[in-house]
């Protein structure tokens, strides 16, 4: 093999490796949904003047956050009890109008847990077929309603319980 073809082969392999790495970092549909939604809502509250120093505003937004969004804030250091502090990884790119999805991609590289956060399923009670749900989902429904199903072992037991208390918790 001549030196030129060897250099070309190495260059090709390096370029291919970089492209594969870049493609694997792109967000998939539904990935980082908490990050994207929270930061999109936060960005809407910012004026152009606020963008330069938005760290304190982000901390205030995190103080009001609940559930999954509070967990997201914990991961980026927006809560008082957070172990890490990567708020600057959010606020600096926001100052330069970097797209939210790109910010979340960068956060994913820092901490994968950020993009593993997902919102709970919301059920359409008019069109739902309870028989197609998993036992885990049926248990979650009962738990959210504050109901217990003592003696429930099989899926049919959970289905009967959900059907029997559904009228108390759902308006159709």
TrEMBL record:
ARMET N-terminal domain residues: 31-122
> Which PANTHER family does its entry note?
ARMET-LIKE PROTEIN (PTHR12990), MESENCEPHALIC ASTROCYTE-DERIVED NEUROTROPHIC FACTOR HOMOLOG (PTHR12990:SF5)
- Protein family per UniProt: Belongs to the ARMET family.
Signal peptide coordinates: 1-25
Work out whether the entry's keyword set contains Disulfide bond.
yes
Its localization reads: Secreted
Q: Pfam families this protein is in?
A: ARMET_C (PF10208), ARMET_N (PF20145)
Q: What is the lineage of its organism?
A: Eukaryota, Metazoa, Cnidaria, Hydrozoa, Hydroidolina
Q: Which organism is it from?
A: Hydra vulgaris (Hydra)
What is the protein's given name?
Mesencephalic astrocyte-derived neurotrophic factor homolog
């Amino acid at each position: 093999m001549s030196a030129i073809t060897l250099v070309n082969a190495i260059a090709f392999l390096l370029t291919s490796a970089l492209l594969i790495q870049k493609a694997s970092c792109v967000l998939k549909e539904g990935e980082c949904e908490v990050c994207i939604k929270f930061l999109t809502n936060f960005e809407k509250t910012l004026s152009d003047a606020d963008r330069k120093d938005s760290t304190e505003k982000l901390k205030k937004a995190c103080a009001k956050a609940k559930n999954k969004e509070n967990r997201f804030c914990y991961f980026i250091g927006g809560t008082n009890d957070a172990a890490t502090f990567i708020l600057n990884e959010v606020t600096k790119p926001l100052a330069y109008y970097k797209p939210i999805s790109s910010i979340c991609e960068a956060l994913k590289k820092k901490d994968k847990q950020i993009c593993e956060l997902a919102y709970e399923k919301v059920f359409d009670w008019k069109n739902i077929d309870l028989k197609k749900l998993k036992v885990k989902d049926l248990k979650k429904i009962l738990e959210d309603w504050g109901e217990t199903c003592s003696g429930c072992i099989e899926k049919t037991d959970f289905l009967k319980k959900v059907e029997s208390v559904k009228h108390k918790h759902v308006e159709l």
